[in-house]
Amino acid sequence: DQIALNHKTIVCPMIDVIDHNHFGYEAQAGDAMRGAFDWEMYYKRIPIPPELQRADPSDPFESPVMAGGLFAVNRKWFWELGGYDPGLEIWGGEQYEISFKVWMCGGGMFDVPCSRVGHIYRKYVPYKVPSGTSLARNLKRVAETWMDEFAEYIYQRRPEYRHLSTGDISAQKELRKHLKCKDFKWFMAAVAWDVPKYYPPVEPPPAAWGEIRNVAANLCVDSKHGATGTELRLDICVKDGSERTWSHEQLFTFGWREDIRPGEPLHTRKFCFDAISHSSPVTLYDCHGMKGNQHWSYRKDKTLFHPVSSSCIDCNPAEKKIFMNRCDPLSETQQWIFEHINMTVLEKFNSKASS
């Protein structure tokens, strides 16, 4: 219907999962959401803002960016847009290229909740990419063609992209000029206006960062470069002379989302400290940016408080275990020292929590 109403519209289905082991069909998790991106160019999904919500949740809704690969488009319009950039290699980046292009060059894009397509996600990639940098090159090519001055926000987070070759993009630049496409500033203001709320181009300053040292144990939190489900542990602090091996991961950022992530402020990983109850281990889990189990508060008594469970991070120095426990500000096993603290930001967090 959307394409019949306006032939310059692209429509995308909800993408469900077909299990690669037994071909079981699973509906897409969670509510319908808008396609978005962060400034490392990872695809994201964000809630539909009230302004775009329809009385009937099955109605199509505008989406800034598609997931990629699955969409319907008028063939004539697709080729007017130049199809896919032939300079993109193998895989990756094409979903941004077609999304930016359709919006900036006079069209629009909708997700359709009633349209569903099952997709089998590979367990592993069965082939090798010859150059090894095709995804990074593709993303830079899209950024240089379509994102104007906003490309700088990507390079700040991915400095290695600055020196990659995009190949010849003169034909793509000419296409953009020929189609009289709007600039990326317009796209961010008119289409993706809600993205900065979740993924700001200029990262707000963190409240605290660096090592997190326990007062009682004089040991540091270490996530060991783990992924989802990894339990945090105590270990000898690297700065105290522990072997500086890759196995240690002791730098963390307590950032503007009030979650704690492995990494330095501009280069955090996509996992967050997570706890499911007042007595559970503290684990890494995929960051969702929605607070809940990943919401933390660093209080004046040096405790790391978890509002959802109304408990604090505790530890057993002998066993090097980290877990949640009933808050006891007099217990030194619940007292933690961040290496660096921005008191202005931290006080803002704490005053917001107490109001």
From TrEMBL:
Membrane topology type: Single-pass type II membrane protein
GO BP terms: protein O-linked glycosylation
Gene Ontology molecular function, alphabetical: carbohydrate binding; metal ion binding; polypeptide N-acetylgalactosaminyltransferase activity
Cofactor: Mn(2+)
A Pfam family it matches: Ricin_B_lectin
Subcellular location: Golgi apparatus membrane
Enzyme class, spelled out: transferase
Keywords, alphabetical: Disulfide bond, Glycoprotein, Glycosyltransferase, Golgi apparatus, Lectin, Manganese, Membrane, Metal-binding, Signal-anchor, Transferase, Transmembrane, Transmembrane helix
Keyword Transferase: yes
Pathway: Protein modification; protein glycosylation
GO CC, one annotated term: Golgi membrane
Domain of life: Eukaryota
Residue span(s) of domain Ricin B lectin: 206-339
EC number: 2.4.1.41
Catalytic activity: L-threonyl-[protein] + UDP-N-acetyl-alpha-D-galactosamine = a 3-O-[N-acetyl-alpha-D-galactosaminyl]-L-threonyl-[protein] + UDP + H(+); L-seryl-[protein] + UDP-N-acetyl-alpha-D-galactosamine = a 3-O-[N-acetyl-alpha-D-galactosaminyl]-L-seryl-[protein] + UDP + H(+)
Entry's family note: Belongs to the glycosyltransferase 2 family. GalNAc-T subfamily.
The name this protein goes by in its record: polypeptide N-acetylgalactosaminyltransferase
Organism: Chauna torquata
Top-level taxonomy: Eukaryota, Metazoa, Chordata, Craniata, Vertebrata
